[in-house]
Amino acid sequence: MSRRTERLSSVIQQELAIMILRDLNDPRVPPITSITRVEVAEDLSTADVYVSIMGTEGQQSAALIALRHSAGIMRTYLTKALTTRTTPFLRFHIDENLKKELAILDLLKQVSQETAEKDRKLAEQQEQQQQGGPDSPTDSQ
Question: How far apart are CA 24 and CA 18, in angstroms?
Answer without folding.
Answer: 9
